[in-house]
Amino acid sequence: MSTTVMSDAIVMPATESQQLATKLIAETKVEFVKCESCGLIEECTPEYINRIRERYQGKWICGLCSEAVKYEIIRSKRLITTDEAMARHMAFCKKSIMSGQKTDPTVDLIDAMKQILRRSLDSPRRVRSTPCSPIRTMDDTVGVGLARSESCIPDVTYVVELEEMMSDQNGE
Fold first, then answer.
1. Pairing relationship of beta strands 41-44 and 31-34 according to DSSP bridges
2. E strand or H helix at 25, and its extent?
3. Domain total of the chain
4. Domain of 74?
5. In the structure, what pLDDT confidence band is assigned to residue 47 with cuts at 50, 70 and 90?
6. Does 162 fall in a domain?
7. DSSP state of 78
8. Which H/E stretch holds residue 43?
9. One Pfam family of this protein, by short name (predicted)?
10. Is the distance from CB of 140 to CB of 166 less than 8 angstroms?
């Protein structure tokens, strides 16, 4: 098996590269698609639209609703399917739309982002067995022989000074 390596650079005039870019953009087909959950209209390629529809059982949902569906799965106290999470989110969106308030879609998007942020801040965090950086008291520090930091020399000095200070206070 042989391999050919091309190492020569090809110089292309700017007008030629612009024409090539324009041609590639023209060949890329883009379609407008409306979210079946919130009604947001997005501009996407047919391939992307098909991938999303495959993922969500033939329904098109926008990126924000997709994130909301993922969050609904995480937030649920019991294990739920993507279909069930999507049904919950779509019910929420329908209820919001049916409330009769005609608002600007931008405001709706901002409100939805605020709600997702609030939910994420209110949801319980994963519990770790020990914190990343446990808080130590003064007594805990004295027991530590060598505490590791960027350089161990300052810590050695600090521990020695602390031990001397403690022995002076105890009258030893």
1. antiparallel
2. helix 14-27
3. 1
4. 26-119
5. very high
6. no
7. S
8. strand 41-44
9. DUF1677
10. no
pLDDT higher at 132 or 31: 31
* Amino acid sitting at position 138: M
Q: What is the H or E stretch that residue 142 is in?
A: helix 138-143
Asked, for residue 38, whether it belongs to a domain, the answer is: yes
CA atoms within 13 A on the CB side of 105: 8
Residues in the chain, overall count: 172
Please compute the mean of the pLDDT values over residues 38-65 and round it to a whole number: 90
Sorting pLDDT into bands at 50, 70 and 90, what band is 125? low
Q: Is residue 20 within 8 Å of residue 36, measured between CB atoms? A: no
Q: Kindly tell me if the per-residue pLDDT of 46 is higher than 80.
A: yes
What's the CA dihedral at 81, 86, 89, 90 to 10 degrees?
-150
Q: Whole-angstrom Cα distance, residue 65 to residue 165?
A: 61
Evaluated on CA atoms 52, 56, 60, 66, the torsion sign reads negative
Q: What pLDDT is recorded for position 86?
A: 92
- Residue 23's contacts (CB-CB under 8 Å, 6 or more residues apart) are none
By the 10 Å C-beta count (0-12 exposed, 13-18 middle, 19+ buried), 65 is classed as buried
Pick the range with the lowest mean pLDDT from 17-21, 86-90, 103-107, 150-154.
150-154
13 domain-assigned: no
